[in-house]
């Protein structure tokens, strides 16, 4: 019964997205399929395909303020950790672990995250802007130095800027600030540079660069149709979630009454 309800919840979370989100997913899927079949298919390329496909679904779910990103994020992170290790982009592994800790586990474990999350969106204050920017720079400096000194990462400072931006973005998203998308855009650009250099140096497939490009398109899209910024879409989703909550409460009341009568 619990498993059935969970799958019903997942199905509900994949519905009601802005149409543009679905278009972007199918565009990404087509690009990744073409990339997969245009080169020798290996275990790593298949793992990359699975990770990128679920990863795009994950960021689109965040864009749509749907908490299904928790399950999608954990699975895609596992794939990306293997890909990052094979490319020696070691901080990309830390990046995925940061996503799991800040975005995925809270969604999977906290009932509060799964109840009308769109109604809890907020904005930065001036002080919050300063804290977020300083935190990004500090993480960049420390991680870049350490990864360069302690590992054979061939791109330590490029890897570090991507990690610092993504880590900060994950924390900002966890705290439900819509300003996260300024960091996600910077993250998309940094990851495109990282994975393009990795591809040119023979350390990764083109699929990761394409994936970063789709992430960037998703981040730009967020400023137009996402409930994080679009007030009309936010109001629509709040009404939809309230209706679903009311229906669930009515079903529970009916079941309770049925039990009492029998």
Structure write-up:
The mean pLDDT is 86. α3 packs parallel to α9 and α6 (126-150) runs antiparallel to α7 (156-174). The longest helix has 31 residues, at 231-261. The chain has helices at residues 2-13, 19-37, 43-63, 69-86, 90-109, 126-150, 156-174, 180-200, 206-225, 231-261. It has 262 residues and is mainly α.
Percent range of helical residues: over 70%
Largest sheet: none
Instruction: Note the total helix count.
Output: 10
| Amino-to-carboxy terminus distance | 20 Å
Give the strand tally: 0
The overall pLDDT, averaged over residues, is 86
Could you say which structural class the secondary elements and strand pairing correspond to? Answer: mainly alpha
Helix and strand sequence: HHHHHHHHHH
Low-confidence stretches are: none
Overall 3D shape: globular
Strand fraction equals under 5%
Radius of gyration: 20 Å
Write a brief caption for the model.
This protein is 79% helix and 0% strand. The chain has 10 helices and no strands.
Task: State the main characteristics.
single chain, 262 residues, mainly alpha, globular
What is the fold's blueprint, element by element?
Layout lengths: L1 H12 L5 H19 L5 H21 L5 H18 L3 H20 L16 H25 L5 H19 L5 H21 L5 H20 L5 H31 L1
Helix pairs in contact: 2-3, 2-9, 3-4, 3-9, 4-5, 5-7, 6-7, 7-8, 8-9
């Amino acid at each position: 019964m619990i498993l059935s309800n969970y799958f019903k919840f997942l199905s509900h979370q994949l519905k009601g997205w802005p149409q543009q989100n679905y278009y972007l997913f199918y565009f990404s899927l087509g690009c990744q399929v073409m990339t997969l079949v245009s080169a020798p298919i290996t275990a790593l390329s298949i793992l990359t395909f699975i990770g990128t496909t679920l990863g795009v679904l994950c960021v689109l779910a965040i864009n749509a303020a749907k908490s299904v990103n928790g399950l999608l994020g954990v699975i895609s992170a596992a794939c990306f950790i293997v890909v990052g290790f094979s490319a020696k982009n070691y901080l990309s592994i830390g990046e995925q672990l940061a996503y799991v800790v800040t975005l995925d586990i809270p969604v999977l474990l906290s009932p509060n995250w799964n109840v009308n999350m769109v109604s809890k969106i907020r904005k930065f204050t001036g002080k919050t802007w300063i804290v977020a920017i300083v935190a990004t720079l500090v993480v960049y400096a420390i991680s870049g130095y350490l990864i360069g000194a302690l590992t054979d990462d061939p791109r330590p400072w490029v890897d570090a800027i991507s990690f610092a931006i993504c880590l900060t973005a994950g924390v900002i998203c966890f705290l439900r600030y819509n300003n996260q998308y300024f960091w996600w855009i910077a993250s998309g650009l940094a990851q495109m540079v990282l994975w393009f250099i990795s591809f040119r140096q023979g350390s990764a497939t083109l699929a990761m660069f394409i994936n970063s490009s789709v992430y960037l398109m998703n981040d730009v899209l967020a400023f137009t149709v996402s409930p994080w910024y679009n007030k009309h879409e936010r109001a629509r989703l709040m009404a939809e979630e309230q209706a679903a909550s009311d229906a669930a409460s009515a079903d529970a009341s009916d079941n309770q009454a049925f039990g009492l009568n029998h």
